[in-house]
Every structure is written in structure tokens, then in C-alpha cells.
Amino acid sequence: MEIKFFNSCRSMSESACDLIVDFVRKKPDALLCAATGDTPTQTYQLLVEEHSRSKGLFAKIRLVKLDEWCGVRPNQDGSCEDYLQKHLLKPLGITGHRYYSFKSDSSEPVKECERMAEILRKIGPIDVAVLGVGVNGHIGFNEPGDVLTPFCHVAQLAPSSQGHSMTRHFGFLPQLGMTLGMADIMSATFILLLIAGQSKTDVFKTLLSRKISSQCPASVLWLHPHTVCLCDNSSVQLE
Ligand code: F6R
Predict the structure, then answer these.
(1) Can you tell me the mean pLDDT for 174-186?
(2) To the nearest whole number, what is the mean pLDDT of the chain?
(3) C-beta 38 within 6 A of ligand 1
(4) Could you tell me the CA-to-CA distances from 72 to 38, 75, 77, 172 in Å, in that order?
(5) What is the pLDDT of residue 239?
(6) Phi, psi of 87 (to 5 degrees)
(7) What is the mean pLDDT of residues 115-143?
(8) Does the pTM of the predicted model rise above 0.85?
């Protein structure tokens, strides 16, 4: 994993946007896996700006949702679906046949994960995975624990994930999430890990220790041959 430091969220996001755009120029039908949440939002805004300058750039791109809360309506504020629709799918004109997604309101989340696993077997592997990291070290909803799970699965959410800012709209604390697994993520050709915010200081220090542990799923990215970690050094405080 290569780590790069930036002095603002804006400059981190510009670099992330450039890296994604470079990749898409080389592979226009790239399969992009997109995290939701606070950290990647500016990157996605910049991609949308690039789209308005370079018409057609994203005309063939495909997108797979990294994870989703169980038991929320797709158009519910704070659902990953709602986030992706607003920040990427609608602005970039990515329509149904180029978008693969866990259904947030599925009554059978295990079957929903099996369905996504099957889809990923057909369309994968992922070309570019854009990830954030949880305060507890999760990536997607691969939560810390004694073991990690390779493929799409239903995850019991850690308390810090249940309390994520996205869930404040729900009126209840979600217990379960659906997520791509660690092998799905690690099979990506290129992984972009974005880290910003004071709350990420501890997890970033853990990452910097270069120790790999299932108790910090993001640390497994040290084993990936092409991961770039971009850190907004103005908000993550190392000293
Ligand atoms: C969301 C996701 C999560 C977030 C993580 C950080 O789709 O996959 O792993 O990336 O919880 O969230 P923010 O960026 O809001 O701090």
C-alpha cells in the first residue's frame, strides 16, 4: 500500500478523482465499486464535474455497490442506494444495466447476498474499488472480528457502524448490513482507500503500524499489490 498525504480534503479528493479518471480513460467500461459515506463525497462531486467537461467519459463505466444497510427503503435518506443515486448514478447517467446493487429492502438478505455474489462472479473482478474506512477499521461492512468473510455476506454491524452518520435518518439502529467480502475487494485491480476526519486518527495510526489483523480489516489492504491510500492530513491528526 502506498500512502499519500494531502493538506486538505479538497486536494485529497482531486487526487482521487484524477486516479479514477486516468483508469477510466484506459478502460472505459471499468467496473467501479463505490463506497458511500462522508469521505468519498467530494471525490464523487469532482467526477461529476469531470463528466460535464468530458462528455462520454463515463458512458460505459459500470458500478457495483459496496454495501448496504438491511431493512431500509431504497429512497430513504441515508441508504447507500439513495447516496449513490444522488452522487454518482443520476449525475453520471449510469442506468440499470450498468449498475449492480444489493436491494436494501430485501426480506431475504442472505439470498440477496447470494444473488450479488453470483452477479459479481459474472461481471467481476472489480477494476477500481473506492473505499473509506470505519473508525473501527471496517471496509465496506467487513467488521473487525476473529475471522473475516471472503464473499458477499450479511454482516452483524458493530455499534460504531450502527451509529454512523448515515443512520441518523432511519429512526432505528440497523443491526445488519449486506456487503461485498474481503476477497471480492482484494480481487480489485486497483484500490483507492480514502481517509479523512479527526475520528479516523486512531485507525490510521493502526494502519501505519503495518500490522495485518482481522481486528482491523483495512490492514489487510497491505497485502494488496496496488492499493493507494490517500489521507487528508489536515483532519487526521498524527501528533
Ligand atoms: C460505506 C462504507 C463504509 C464507510 C466507512 C467510513 O459504503 O463502505 O465502510 O466507508 O464507514 O464512512 P465515512 O466516510 O462516512 O466516515
Answers:
(1) 98
(2) 97
(3) yes
(4) 19, 8, 9, 10
(5) 73
(6) -95, -25
(7) 98
(8) yes
- What single DSSP character describes residue 101? -
Distance CA 3, CA 5 (A): 7
Give the residue whose CA is nearest to atom 3 of ligand 1: 140
Q: Is the CB of 35 under 6 A from ligand 1?
A: yes
| Cβ–Cβ under 8 Å, residues 129 and 63 | no
Mutational pocket test of ligand 1: of 139, 167, 201, 202, the residue with most ligand atoms within 8 Å of the beta carbon: 139
Residue 88: CB within 6 Å of ligand 1? no
Residue by residue, DSSP assigns 121-188 as: HHH-S-SEEEE---TTS-BTTB--SSS---SSEEEEPPHHHHTSGGGGGTSS---EEEE--HHHHHT-
Residue type, 162: Q
Ligand 1, atom nearest to 194 Cα:
14
pLDDT for residue 114? 98
Please work out whether the CB of residue 37 comes within 6 Å of at least one atom of ligand 1.
yes
Query: Which cell numbers hold the place of 176?
Result: 445488519
Neighbours of 183 (CB within 10 A): 13
